[in-house]
Amino acid sequence: MTTPVCTSASKPAGPVAVKASLMYPSFASYVQARQPVLLRTARSLTSNPSDAEDLLQTALTKTYVAWERIEDHRALDGYVRRALLNTRTSQWRKRKVDEFATDELPEPEPVPVADPAEQQALKDAMWRAIMKLPDRQRAMVVLRYYEDLSEAQTAEVLGVSIGTVKSAVSRALGKLREDPELTPVR
Fold first, then answer.
1. How far apart are CA 88 and CA 86, in angstroms?
2. Which letter, b or e, does each residue of 111-148 get, where b requires 16 or more Cβ atoms within 10 Å of its Cβ?
3. End-to-end alpha-carbon separation of the chain, Å?
4. With contact defined as beta carbons under 8 Å apart, do 77 and 40 qualify?
5. pLDDT of amino acid 122
6. Which band of pLDDT confidence, cut at 50, 70 and 90, is reported for residue 174?
7. At what angle do helices 162-178 and 151-158 cross, to 10 degrees?
């Protein structure tokens, strides 16, 4: 049979605890009998079991301090529950607040919305400029930028080398930059 690692859980720890249990033996018997129920209540008030144990310990300490003033010991559960709730509320109020109220709400800058008619006019101008390109360059530009193929994939589809795709696309983009219909866009 092994000996428990922590013996303080089952026995009073030291002369202060012995003095406390001798001073109020009814408190010690109350805690021993009602601790599991009160711990469940504390756990319902916190998300962490360790915090619940600390909360119960604090509430029981407050109850112990007021033990002589409590007239009706049949209502102890209510007293301890109220101490649990008040303690938890105090902890909640003392937490660090990272948000502060302001007079003016920070609003993001509105993103300018492009006119759909202007967008369509730009698309039409771009297609007219692309249609002016020679067939081979037009095919490469469409595959690279409209179909989003890589240079290697474009070369494979057209049956040419990657270098051919690079040079043809470069020449086509140069012609598109010089197109007078696309000048207002720049």
1. 5
2. eeeeeeeeeeeeeebbeebbeebeeebebbbebbeeee
3. 87
4. no
5. 86
6. very high
7. 100
> Sign of torsion, CA 81 85 90 95?
positive
What secondary structure letter does DSSP report for 95?
S
Token pair of 46, please?
């916190």
Q: Is 29 helix (H, G, I), strand (E, B) or coil?
A: helix
pLDDT in tens, 86-111: 999 888 887 776 667 777 877 888 88
State residue 133's pLDDT score. 92
State the average pLDDT over residues 40-56.
90
In 3-state terms, what secondary structure has residue 26? Answer: helix
